[in-house]
Design a protein that fits this description.
The complex is a heterodimer of chains A (about 110) and B (about 110). Helix content of chain A is about 0%, strand content about 55%. In chain A, the strands form two sheets. In chain A, strands 2, 4, 5, 9, 10 and 11 form a six-stranded mixed β-sheet that branches. In chain A, strands 1-3-8-7-6 form a five-stranded antiparallel β-sheet, with no helix packed on it. Chain A has about 110 residues and is mainly β. Chain A is globular and about 40 Å long. Chain A has strands spanning about 5, 10-15, 20-25, 30-35, 45-50, 55-60, 60-65, 70-75, 85-90, 100, 105-110. With about 110 residues, chain B is an all-beta fold. Chain B contains no helices and eleven strands. In chain B, the strands form two sheets. In chain B, strands 2, 4, 5, 6, 9, 10 and 11 form a seven-stranded mixed β-sheet that branches. In chain B, a hairpin with a 7-residue loop joins strand 9 (about 85-95) and strand 10. Chain B is globular, with a radius of gyration of 13 Å. The N and C termini of chain B lie far apart (about 30 Å). Classes of the chains: A mainly beta (about 110), B mainly beta (about 110). Chains A and B meet through strand 4, strand 5, strand 9 and strand 10 of A and strand 4, strand 5, strand 9 and strand 10 of B.
């Protein structure tokens, strides 16, 4: 069974701070997605990384896929209250299903 | 708006009952996925359909079943409901077999 562990589970920071959240597994994934979920809503896709070592930037968010395609990180620069939400990573396998981590609940205080 | 529509948004039912959750995927998407989200278990994959056929199965209980119809909408049937089945149920769709999924807003099921 492929498992994804996310850390930290909870993170509360002040506006303007930087942060990094992690997604780790002992399994290799063909792709890794990051989603953000707000209360009462479904997860929204932020990015997909497919190549080991790949780095993608989305405004103040930087996503990195580990060289061995077993882990990923999400770095947010100068966090804003609008970044508040549950950040989920998901690994794609050969059978097209997504395996999700339990998420990091981020709160950015004004 | 992801383009994935789920109905109903909220559902309250008693233990032992049966309910049906409905999902309409994004236009053109052939794959439909069902997920269950609870506070302690996170987002759990239940089942995937591709163009009407079951493609992958996850942690889906025998009391649960799903199907995808010729018009590509999907239904998740939950029977003999238990208190522990209370959760958010999400449907997602994707183009073909790609794993980038677009989620609906979910159905919040409460079993009392």
């Amino acid at each position: 069974t492929q498992l994804l562990e996310q850390s930290p589970q909870f993170l509360s920071i002040q506006e303007g701070e930087n942060l990094t959240v992690y997604c780790n597994s002992s399994s290799v994934f063909s792709s890794l997605q990051w989603y953000r979920q707000e209360p009462g809503e479904g997860p929204v896709l932020l990015v997909t990384v497919v190549t080991g070592g790949e780095v993608k930037k989305l405004k103040r968010l930087t996503f990195q896929f580990g060289d061995a395609r077993k882990d990923s990180s999400l770095h947010i620069t100068a966090a804003q209250p609008g970044d508040t939400g549950l950040y989920l990573c998901a690994g794609g396998g050969s059978n097209y299903k997504l395996t999700f981590g339990k998420g990091t609940l981020l709160t950015v205080n004004p | 708006d992801s383009g994935v529509t789920q109905t109903p948004k909220h559902l309250i039912t008693a233990t032992g009952q049966r309910v049906t959750l409905r999902c309409s995927p994004r236009s053109g998407d052939l794959s439909v996925y069902w997920y269950q989200q609870s506070l302690d278990q996170g987002l759990q994959f239940l089942i995937q359909y591709y163009n009407g056929e079951e493609r992958a199965k996850g942690n889906i209980l025998e009391r649960f079943s799903a199907q995808q119809f010729p018009d590509l909408h999907s239904e998740l049937n939950l029977s003999s409901l238990e208190l522990g089945d209370s959760a958010l149920y999400f449907c997602a769709s994707s183009v073909g077999g790609k794993t980038e999924a677009f989620f609906g807003q979910g159905t919040r099921l409460t079993v009392v």
